[in-house]
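Our collaborator T.R. sent over the components below with a one-line note: 'Predict the complex.' Nothing else. No constraints on interfaces, no templates requested, no preferences about which chain binds where. So this is a plain run: every listed entity goes in together, and whatever single assembly comes back becomes the starting point for the next discussion.
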Amino acid sequence: MCLRSCYSAGVQAVIEAIAEPRRREILQLVRDEEMTAGRIAAHFDVTRQAISQHLRVLHGARLVSERRDGTRRLYRVRPEGLIELRAFLDDFWSNRLEKLKREAEADEKSRAANRR
Amino acid sequence: MCLRSCYSAGVQAVIEAIAEPRRREILQLVRDEEMTAGRIAAHFDVTRQAISQHLRVLHGARLVSERRDGTRRLYRVRPEGLIELRAFLDDFWSNRLEKLKREAEADEKSRAANRR
DNA sequence: CGATAATGTAAGCAGAGACTTGCGCAAGTG
DNA sequence: CACTTGCGCAAGTCTCTGCTTACATTATCG
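Returned assembly:
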């Protein structure tokens, strides 16, 4: 059921990755074009290594791709991770809408049940 | 720009709230019907107080509604927070995703061709 | 009113994670 | 070959957060 997607390792990794504001900013940076780790880090006031660690997390969540060109590493948004997250949310959402028809009925039942 | 939505307090609260697996489980529990705090807590192996704190976080992110009936408090999923998250993701998408996917596939093919 | 039931709040602790400093490593360049 | 560039990795620090224990709060019932 839905519990599977609740515990999906992929979705968990994606949500944890985008929970950090700086990582969302990084995603915005590499959304339209490939960018080297150095150029990405230059946009922030933390150290280059800190951004490197963020990039590792994003890569682990399959939210960015990594391509090597000499000593440089180029990153770019990859849609797989976000597609997975969207599927999770859509699943949550559609199921809720599906049940929405019986909302009044369910309301009454739950209230009676809770009254015990 | 998109930086506003990156730093939106509401979206930040929602993402942080659903980043915790137990809170996602709680959302599933109260998705279809109202449920008391006690009944929700009974589904987990942590203390009732821990669940109460999770409910506070979910309520702060506007992901659940709280209704009092005597000494009991009844919780239920509220769509506002999820709507906000969806809007954020849709904004991030901005119909780039499909294009990105095609480009990624094309990149893979050209890179494979260049390797030989 | 006192007792009890359902729940939130507060303080403290332990683990997670974000950041820094220091170092290592691969690929060009003189 | 040394030297530089562009990175990632590792260990230590500090803050945040989720959990527990203990206490407070609110409402109902006798």
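Summary for T.R.: Residues 20, 22, 46-47, 49-50, 53-54, 70-72 of chain A lie near DNA strand C (CB under 10 Å from a C1').
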